[in-house]
Structures are given as C-alpha cells and as structure tokens.
Amino acid sequence: MSTDPAPRPRRKDSPGMRFVRVWMPLLIIISGLLLGILVGTDAAWEGGALLISAGVSVWLLNLLYRVGVRGDRDRGAEERAREHFERHGRWPDEKP
Question: 74 is in which domain, residue-wise?
Fold first, then answer.
C-alpha cells in the first residue's frame, strides 16, 4: 500500500467564479472605454480611465489571490512529503 501524497486535481471553476475572475474585470474595462469614446469629453475620459484602472485592479487582486492559494497548496504538499520522509526514510518521489 502506497502512502505517497498524491497531488490534488485542480477543481473546475464555477460559472460565478469565472465571471468574477474574467468577465467582471473585462466588463469594467470595456465600460470605461465606452464611456470615453461615446461621451468624448475630458471628464468622460477621466472617468473612463478610473473605470479601466478599477477593472485592472479587480483582475490583479484575483491573480494575487490565486498565487497566494497556490503557495498554500505547495506548502501543504511539502509538509506531507516531510511527514512521509519521517515515516519511511525517503522522499515520496524517490525510487526504492
């Protein structure tokens, strides 16, 4: 019986999560562009720039969150590998 820690498969994103990660930032950015193009005044372009910045910020926050969660998963896998090493005297990926 093998007690090697198997990597967990990546879960598929739910439609709501996909909307928050991809479509919401895109919609915010597109609305900023449309505001500037359709209205065309200096104030509209400034507001559009703020909306574009907000969309990029939402996208970047999602990216940073995913990087942080991936690091937590990697630390968990490392901890499981160390426990395996303590029990068996070899790393899980070493050939016996």
Answer: 19-88
